[in-house]
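The following block was generated as part of the benchmark described in Methods. Ligand: acetyl coenzyme *A.
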Amino acid sequence: MASILGFGGYVPERIVTNDDWAARLDTSDEWITQRTGIKRRRFAADDQATLDLALEASRKAVADAGMEPADIDEIVLATDTPEMLTPDTAALVQHGLGCRNIPTYDLGGSGCAGFVQALDVAASRIATGTRNVLVVGVEVITRLISLEDRSTAVLFGDGAGAVVMGPGPGRASVLGAVSGTDGGSAEILTLAAGGTRNPFNATTLANGEFNRLVMDGRKVFVEAVRRMSEASLQVLEKVGRSISDVALVIPHQANKRIIDAVTSKLGLAEDKVYVNVHEYGNIGSATVPFALWEAVGAGKLVAGDLVILTAFGAGFHWAAAAVQF
Ligand code: ACO
């Protein structure tokens, strides 16, 4: 069975508060706080890009596992905001960390569900003989979406999280995972320009399409609650456990109201659900591994704890994993 051997996380230093946004756009701390629970988020420095954040979190995870980069046998990296279109960010992490010429690949475009999907993929790779897999979730979302569109800009932040996984025993065992996709909902949450259908060009630049994140917030909200709740219960059933066994749920951190609705659907007390969205906003595929690293560092997870990781994102994709500390 695959285990988690080390944890890592990183957010850039620059803090952007709701009042900072209110000074720039037609919005307010009150609106953002009431609708999302977000108070502040981090922005990558001008000289930082996706690779820099990924390397920071990865180095911590590798060291936390008591390993050297040479011990890593494979890298799976989830991001919707890669360092460049090609090659993938995972290849750049392989070189930047100083790993051997191991296989690496990105899971791109699966939105905020990417890390939990990557963890599922890594667990199955380990089950078929791969040893140590570095799994990363990283985003520099604030660089690729419009900072003039108040309906999306205020929701996001930048950051990275990582784990090193390997065959057991480790700090926590991945008991099982579930995931699903509904590609028929793609247009509800999409950044359509930049691909082959609608490449970056003078037209997409002139009409502002190149960085326009199109989002039906209410539909995303409803589906995020439904899919994360269902996936959490499905993975518990898959591993033969029940919601009353769970010590902590670490859900994707998009919006406090989404988290509250999942908490209520699962019938959990508030202190059984991890929340840091007020501090960092939505950091896409990095929310779950970053929160996991933060929770472990704060001593919130001890031996015996059953933890559910669950996420939902563009696609739509969703996933949940059951992790036994
Ligand atoms: N400041 C002030 N007003 C704003 C802002 C803002 N930053 N953004 C939008 N508005 C306005 C809109 O223009 C609109 O005004 P109108 O009624 O005059 O047209 C109004 O606020 C929208 O109000 P509601 O539709 O009632 O807003 P809602 O309560 O649905 O909240 C929100 C919007 C926060 C986007 C919510 O739908 C949501 O969180 N949805 C989930 C979206 C999400 O998390 N996306 C992240 C990516 S996907 C993921 O991670 C799961």
